[in-house]
């Protein structure tokens, strides 16, 4: 069983995907982490995320970065959003995402293009969204809790810039698959969002 969970930054898709994976006892892959690892590798090398060649060269080293705590920070997220627009970077990361999806009996993957590109044949698809102000509030709270000193306005501006880049890029833009169930978490608690998400999956499988 393959379950695809897509949506913009801080929509709740990661939390929801983890809960669905635990519910069905399936492995979970946060595909954003792969792009963050490529973005952080590019930054560490002093290279330019906008250079497709530099970003592709970083793909081979990304696996080694996946446990790096800096991947959670906004610098890695912003670099990820730039490197992920390069078609050759996406191509380099497709095989390992598909392999994960089809390994022993299935998986839950969350990202931007799981239901549209990585696993269009998924058994269940969710598209998770929330307003940009609410997503920025959640992300800001999370960053402050982790000790970051960053203003709400900066987080909101980052989220809006990321949404724009992710949804307007030519290759695999952020888009709801036609057969994905829509879940708006704007006014839901985490518990309610998880409950709704599992109901929506149950209706599709
Ligand atoms: O989900 P997360 O915020 O960690 O993703 C970081 C960035 O990686 C996103 O802004 C997006 O540009 C990119 N990404 C992507 N495709 C995915 C997952 C993430 O392009 N499947």
TrEMBL record:
SUPFAM superfamilies (alphabetical): P-loop containing nucleoside triphosphate hydrolases
EC number: 2.7.4.25
Enzyme class: transferase
Keyword Cytoplasm: yes
Domain spans labelled Cytidylate kinase: 3-202
Localization per record: Cytoplasm
Residues where ATP binds: 7-15
GO molecular function, one term: kinase activity
InterPro entries per record: Cytidylate_kin, Cytidylate_kinase_dom, P-loop_NTPase
Reaction catalysed by this enzyme: dCMP + ATP = dCDP + ADP; CMP + ATP = CDP + ADP
Entry-linked Gene3D superfamilies: P-loop containing nucleotide triphosphate hydrolases
Record key words, sorted: ATP-binding, Cytoplasm, Kinase, Nucleotide-binding, Transferase
Protein family membership: Belongs to the cytidylate kinase family. Type 1 subfamily.
Name the record gives this protein: Cytidylate kinase
Gene that this sequence comes from: cmk
